Amino acid sequence: MSLGMYQSSIPALVRALGNLRQILAKAASHCEAKKIDPAVLIGFRLFPDMLPLASQVRIAGDMAKGSAARLGGLEVPKFEDNETTFAELDARIDKTLAFLATVTPAQIDGSEKRTVTIKTPRGDLNFEGQSYLQFFLLPNVYFHCTTAYNILRHNGVEIGKMDFIGAP
Amino acid sequence: MSLGMYQSSIPALVRALGNLRQILAKAASHCEAKKIDPAVLIGFRLFPDMLPLASQVRIAGDMAKGSAARLGGLEVPKFEDNETTFAELDARIDKTLAFLATVTPAQIDGSEKRTVTIKTPRGDLNFEGQSYLQFFLLPNVYFHCTTAYNILRHNGVEIGKMDFIGAP
User: Fold this and answer.
1) Which SUPFAM superfamilies does the record match to this protein (chains A, B) (predicted)?
2) What is the CB neighbour count within 10 angstroms for residue A99?
C-alpha cells in the first residue's frame, strides 16, 4: 500500500459509499419500524433549495464513478436518475461499487498531472489530477455522504458518526 | 508536489478550514443583515442530540491539528472550548491554521505505518498512519465542515457547495 493516485482515491470512495449504504439500510429499517413512508425521507431537503436525499446519494456515487473517467480515461456507466425507494438507491450504490471494483491501479496511477476540467454553474474549474482528487473529488463525495447523513439524522434516524466513518 | 503523507493531509486540511472560515464569515454577515442573534446559529443543532455549530467548528479544527500529533509526533496546542461569537470561532480557526503552517513535510512524511490509536465511546480504534489519514482524519474533517455548512444552510444562510469546496 502506498499513496499513489489509485490508493488515494478508489479505496476511500469505496469505503464512503459502503458506509452510506449501511446508513441508508438503517433509514429503511427506521421507516419500517416507525411506519414512516420512505418517500418522505427520500425526498427530504434540509432547506427548500437544497437537494433531497435521493440526489445526495446519486451525486456521491456519480462523483465517485466519474473520477475513474477523469483520472483513468475510462468509459463510465450512466445510470438513470429514477430511484424512488431505498431498495433502488441501494441497487444504484451496488452498481457503482461493482464498477469501481473493475478499476485497476494501472488505470489510475500516474494521473497526478492529468488535466481535469469540471463544468460548474460558475464556469469551468481546471485542475491537475492530484488537485482534483484532493481538493474536489474527496471533499465532494464526503459532502454529499454527510448531507445524506444529516438529512436522516435531522429526521430522527438513529445513526451516529461512526456509521459514517465505518470500522477501521 | 507528490502524494506523500504531508501532501495528502496538511494542504487539504488547511483548505477545508480556510473554506469553513469563509462560510462562517458569510453567516456572521447574514446575522448582521437580518438582525439575527448570532448565538442562535452558533448554538443550533440539526437534532437535539447532535452537536451545535460551535462544536462542529471546534472538532473540525481539533481533528486537523491533532493529526500533526498523531502522524508527526508533535506537541499540539490546546485551546479552551469557550467560543461564543463568530469572531471567536474565526480566531480559533486562525490559530489552528497558524499551527498547521508550522508543520513541515519532514515531520509528517514517512508516517504511513505509524500506529495511531483513537479512543472512541465504542472502544479504541487502531490504524496505521495511512489508513488513519484516508479513512478517519479526512472523512472526519469533511464531516464536521459539512455539518457546519448544513446547519447554516438549514437556517437560510446564503451559501452554496462551492463555498465549501473553494476555488481550485
Assistant:
1) DinB/YfiT-like putative metalloenzymes
2) 17
Q: To the nearest whole angstrom, how far is the Cα of A85 from the nearest Cα of chain B?
A: 24
Using an 8 Å Cβ cutoff, are B82 and B48 in contact? no
| Region B15-165: CATH code | 1.20.120.450
The interface predicted TM-score of the complex, written ipTM, equals: 0.96
CB contact under 8 A, A126 and B47: no
- So what's the pLDDT on residue B2? 66
DSSP of A70-132? HHH--------S---SHHHHHHHHHHHHHHHHH--HHHHTT-TT-EEEEEETTEEEEEEHHHH
Burial B5-41 (b: 16+ CB within 10 A, else e): bbbbbbebbbbbbebbbebbeebbebbeeeeeebeeb
pLDDT digits (tens, 9 = 90+) for A42-94: 999 999 999 999 999 999 999 999 998 899 999 889 999 999 999 999 999 99
- Give CA–CA dist A60/A27, Å, rounded: 17
Determine, for residues A136 and B50 on separate chains, whether the beta-carbon distance falls below 8 Å. no
Interface with A, mutate which of B8, B14, B22 (most A CBs under 10 A): B8
* Domain residue extents for chain B: 15-165
